[in-house]
Design brief:
mainly alpha; 5 strands; 5-stranded mixed β-sheet
Length: about 525
């Protein structure tokens, strides 16, 4: 007995959904942070503070109170059990990302895209490097994706409606997106543009709901260390014109790396940037025809242009990619030059195949690295970003460095007395694993200024490593400044280097004028 085509499609959708969820859960199942970005640790410590389950980390309350991030993602982690362990948080975050792909499918169907094409686009999204990599990190994009796409689907569905009940639901989703990532302001901008250009004053209701939610969050959040302050300071220091020019120069590379991390040479960058420009034109076409999702896409692309932090640029790109894909498909499918009977297939191929060509090598490389032989010492780090480096020797070197840093943080827990604090270039990670209060190592400077800053902080222990950051660009910072005043408590050399190069160490600082 042959199943009807619609029934076969239902089974295919279910099979793809199970396969994607299983793959995301498998790739993310780790009890270690995938990357040493401080966001990951702050999100987990905040989730642990709010979690009604399990034990509480001794520093969770401190980080939750000082967090500069919107609160909904760590609250969601806590609600679904992600605050009990990093392992659980990875699984919850991967599941949220999968829900985001379902929300992308809902958005495509609201746009009128055929179900088979919507399924193909969702599978393509799951293969794109930056989308897939989102599953192995603890980042708020994993919650922002389902919330923003659900909001967008309702916005498109109700864009001609003035019913308060419908627009109130839109407003709740917009507010939730804004309380997950500040980039949710682009959804507010889309509502405002729709109210203005489509002459729909009822669309001020979602804006009011989002504004109330943001006002509540601003009133209850104690931290003043916000990205917005850093953004403004950066533009004021460099100047708006030069800074924007730098942003525009960096944007093509960041966009291309988000779609295919293996391809870091200029021909792929040019080709993918051309594709991105075409997607932006399709979004502009939606906005020109007064569609609310077109306004959203343009507002979000404007944020990408001005966003000054390269480390987050690719993650931000992943949140707009599903929208751009759908809008580009509609643009191509509307071309009358295409044969009507094959128009959906041709449009899907013209939009999706170029991305697949660039994304597939990275996906294959990712799978190969995930299942490549790992030295026994590094086996627990298989699911970290360091092991996913494409060159095996680079992967071993980077993973060995992470292993040494984790070992040093275990030394902090073991050797630093309770009540003491440590300096580290990744304070939240040091606090998470070292279970001691950690402060940012003062930046590279002359010895006098550095000592003054370090004395003011009050810590007498340093985590020193090969890891560098924007504030500590010197290897082993601050070893060169304080070498004669540091007493090594634990050292971890590279086990794969015949010269046993030092990777990380814990040292106690005794200033010359200390009692």
């Amino acid at each position: 007995m042959t199943l009807p085509a619609s029934r076969r499609l239902v089974w295919l959708e279910a099979a793809c959904g199970i396969a994607i969820l299983s793959a995301l859960l498998y790739f993310s199942a780790s009890d270690l942070l995938s990357e040493f970005g401080g966001d990951n640790a702050v999100y987990w410590l905040t989730a642990n503070h709010y979690s009604p389950y399990g034990a509480t980390h001794p520093l969770a309350a401190e980080y939750a109170a000082a967090s500069r991030y919107p609160p909904l993602y760590p609250l969601a982690l806590a609600a679904f059990g992600g605050g009990t362990s990093v392992f659980a948080a990875h699984l919850v975050s991967a599941a949220l990302l999968c829900v985001g792909l379902l929300a992308a499918r809902a958005y495509y169907l609201v746009l009128g895209i055929p179900r088979a094409v919507a399924l193909a686009l969702v599978v393509l999204l799951a293969l794109v490097p930056i989308m897939r990599n989102g599953a192995i990190e603890l980042q708020s994009e994993d919650l922002y994706l389902p919330l923003s796409l659900a909001a967008l689907a309702l916005m498109v569905r109700y864009e001609n409606s003035s019913a308060p009940s419908r627009l109130a639901l839109v407003g709740l989703l917009v507010a939730a997106s804004l309380l997950t990532r500040t980039a949710g302001i682009t959804l507010v901008a889309a509502c405002a543009a729709h109210a203005l250009f489509a002459r729909r004053p009822a669309w001020l209701l979602p804006i009011a709901i989002a504004a109330l939610a943001w006002a509540w969050n601003s009133h209850t959040q104690h931290s003043t260390n916000a990205y917005s302050h850093e953004l403004v300071d950066g533009y004021l220091r460099q100047g708006i014109g030069p800074r924007l020019l730098t942003q525009l120069e960096n944007l093509p590379l960041q966009w291309s790396l988000a779609l295919g991390g293996l391809l870091e040479t200029w021909p792929p960058v040019i080709l993918l940037s051309t594709l991105g420009f075409a997607f932006a034109c399709a979004a502009a076409g939606r906005a020109w025809r007064r569609h609310v999702d077109g306004y959203y896409a343009l507002a979000y692309l404007a944020v990408l242009v001005v966003w000054p932090f390269p480390a987050e640029m690719q993650r931000l790109t992943s949140m707009i990619l599903p929208v751009l894909l759908g809008q580009a498909y509609l643009f191509v499918a509307a071309r009358r030059a295409l044969p009507a009977e094959h128009r959906p297939l041709i449009a899907a191929m013209l939009v999706g195949v170029p991305i697949l060509v660039f994304a597939l090598p990275d996906t294959v490389g990712f799978a190969v690295r995930m299942h490549s032989p790992v030295p026994a010492l590094l086996e627990p780090y298989r699911r970290t970003a360091a092991w996913q480096q494409h060159e095996p020797q680079v992967a071993i070197m980077e993973t060995a460095l992470r292993q040494a840093i984790y070992a040093t943080l275990a030394d902090v827990d073991r050797l630093v007395p309770a009540g003491e604090c440590v300096y580290s270039i990744k304070p939240s990670v040091a606090s998470l694993y070292g279970r001691r209060r950690s402060l940012q190592t003062p930046p590279d400077s002359d010895a006098v200024a550095f000592r003054a800053a370090a004395l003011a902080g009050g810590c007498r222990y340093f985590v020193i490593s090969l890891l560098v950051s924007p504030s500590a660009r010197t290897l082993y910072h601050p070893l060169a400044i304080l070498r004669a005043e540091l007493t090594p408590l634990a050292q971890h050399p590279d086990p794969f280097d015949p010269r046993k190069r030092l990777l990380a160490m814990l040292a106690k600082w005794t200033p010359p004028d200390a009692p």
